[in-house]
Each structure stands twice: as C-alpha cells, then as structure tokens.
Design goal:
Blueprint lengths: L1 E6 L3 H12 L3 E7 L3 H11 L2 E3 L2 H6 L5 E4 L6 H10 L4 E4 L6 H13 L4 E4 L6 H12 L5 E9 L6 H6 L3 H4 L1 H12 L3 E9 L14 E8 L4 E7 L7 E8 L2 E5 L8 E2 L7 E2 L6 H4 L1 H17 L7 H20 L3 E2 L3
Parallel strand pairs: 1-2, 1-4, 2-3, 4-5, 5-6, 7-10
Antiparallel strand pairs: 7-11, 8-9, 8-15, 9-10, 11-12, 13-14
Helix pairs in contact: 1-11, 5-12, 9-12
The structure holds nicotinamide-adenine-dinucleotide.
Nicotinamide-adenine-dinucleotide binds next to helix 1.
EC number: 1.1.1.18
GO molecular function, one term: inositol 2-dehydrogenase (NAD+) activity
Keywords: Oxidoreductase
Length: 332
Amino acid sequence: MLRIAVLGAGRIANIHAANVAANPDVRLSVIADPWREGVDKLASKLGCAVAYDCAEAIARDDVDALVIGTPTDTHIDLMLRAVKLGKPVLCEKPIDLDFAKAARAVEDIERLNGKVMLGFNRRFDPDTLQLRKAIARGDIGEVRQVVITSRDPGLAPVEYLTHSGGIFRDMTIHDFDTARTLLGEEPVEVFAMASRLVEPALAEIDDYDSVMVLLRTASGKQCHINCCREAVYGYDQRLEVFGAKGMILNDNHRPSTVRTYSATQTEVRDPLENFFLERYADSYRIELNQFIEAVRANAPLPTTARDGLRALHLANCAIESIKTGRAVKVEI
Ligand SMILES: NC(=O)c1ccc[n+]([C@@H]2O[C@H](COP(=O)([O-])OP(=O)(O)OC[C@H]3O[C@@H](n4cnc5c(N)ncnc54)[C@H](O)[C@@H]3O)[C@@H](O)[C@H]2O)c1
C-alpha cells in the first residue's frame, strides 16, 4: 500500500489530505505544517501522524510519496528534497514565481529522473476530460479556436494578493495550462491586456484584476482567455472549443437543474457553484487518483514539472506584453 504524506494544512492541503484519507488504495501517513494548531486538528480528524517540519515528513520511512500544498515559494525546495530521496510528488501550482529558479529545478528533476506531477487540477475536471476525449476522437475535427472564461466570484484579501505573484501567475496560470492542452500545440505568441476595474488600489502591488490574453500556435490556432477577479453572479468557468467540424462547450455548474418561472421572470436557476473547492471538488480527487495509479504502475505522470514551467513562462510573456504593449514570442 502506497503511504503518502501531505505537506500543508491550509485550504488546498485540507482537500488533498481528505482525498488521500478517503482513498482505500493508499494510506495517509502524516500531515506536516509549521502551523501547529491547524495541523494538529487536521491530523487528528483524519487519524494520521503529525510533523511540524516538512523536511522531516519527507524523509520518514513510512512515506513513499508526497502531496505538496504549502505556499508557492516552498514548492521547489520540498519537491527537490523528495526527488533526491526517489519519492514521487504531486505538487500544487504554480511551480514557483521565479522562472530561472523553476527552470533550474526542472533540469535537476529531469536529470534525476524525478517524478513530479504539477497540480493542474482543471485538466482532471470531468467536463474537461470529456471535452478532451471528444477532441481526441475527432468529434469537432481539427481545433481552430479555444475560448476560456475564468472569473472568480470576488476579490481575494489584499494579504493574499500581495503574495500571489499577480493574476497571471496565480489565477490565469490554470488557463494557460488549459489552453496548451486544448489547442494540442504549444502557443508561440502571447498578447495581453490588463486593467484594474474592480480595485484601482491593486496598482500599489503592480497587479490587475481584469485581463484578456490572446495566444497563437505555430500553425495559427488561436486561444482567447478572459479572467476577472470579481463576477457578482458567482464563479464563472466556461470553455468553448471550435473546430473544423463543430464546437464543444462546457457550461457552469449549479447545485440543481431546477428552473423557476413566475409572472416577472422565467428560467430562474440556482446560483453557480461557488468557488473552486466546490466547483472543482471532483477534479482534485481524480487528479490524486491518476497520480496514485501512475506511481503504482511506474507509468509516466499525467502532468510534469515542465508543464509547470511552460505555464509560468506563458504568464511571464503575458506580463511582458502588458509592459511593452506588444505581442511577445514564446521562447522555450
Ligand atoms: N489547484 C488549485 O485549485 C489551488 C487552489 C488554492 C491554492 N493552490 C495552491 O496551493 C498552495 C497553497 O495555497 P493555500 O491557498 O492552500 O494556502 P494556505 O495559506 O491556506 O495554506 C498554506 C499552508 O502552508 C503552511 N506554511 C506556511 N509556510 C510554510 C513553510 N515554510 N513550509 C511549510 N508549510 C508552510 C501554512 O501554515 C498554511 O497552513 C499555493 O501554491 C496555491 O497557489 C492551488
């Protein structure tokens, strides 16, 4: 039985730890976090050991693989420690905020044949999996254009935003990965626009809240990503893939399919599922299952550290495009 450590006891690590504990094929050995109160509570709820030091948890004899859900600036150090001990890792996005540091880490990981899966959970959302299968079957022919809508319900606290790395590396990074997977080709050019339409004070931390990005691949396929940190009607997550023989759409999720008609309104529906822990709950579980299956079968992981690097580079190209007002060539 694969024995897993979860690093972190915060928002996302809570989800991963619960999924590991609920999976009958693996054992949750330990949860590690320097936040004693939080990790004690989570570990006692899930019935596993506790560590207050992540390095100690990685080195434990009863840990075969790791899930990293700690702050972004700890990811590389922790994943390299695990790789050097030959332990596979599922690590949250983004890989890091510093491209040069991430590029060095990816080279080390590849040289050591390390197994690192980057947590681009949206790839494993059941809707997206279905959409990708339809594209692979040729249902809509050759893909021509992809439109990604990704809007959060509300602006995160300023403390979070200050350390997030900015909207492109924190939020749109998911969409850069989705664009790569749905286009089926690497983007070669990025053009971005960004505004502060929700919170002008974001200028103080050199960040934005409303962005649009255009991507183009070498053969001319196009993708349009639109992101906003605030949508008053809820968490707006939609995909549209347009091809030579048709189009595939996926729509927002609601708690029920009920529609109400009255004298003043028709088609009144439940609000959208609200926020990522709810909307993408299945994706985190399926992501973990695919990690476990690949590790047990000694098969290639479904995503890699290099995927993390590529998405980070696209985010950096978008930032450069905003600074220069020009389209930026993708050069990795
Ligand atoms: N895939 C997704 O949908 C998704 C969603 C949210 C967050 N994330 C990513 O997950 C990571 C964590 O985000 P979060 O929202 O859960 O953060 P969080 O602040 O809720 O949790 C982070 C935890 O890490 C602990 N910690 C702080 N410093 C540490 C250190 N030096 N070593 C080890 N642990 C430390 C904190 O005590 C805290 O419990 C980030 O990289 C974020 O980008 C991904």
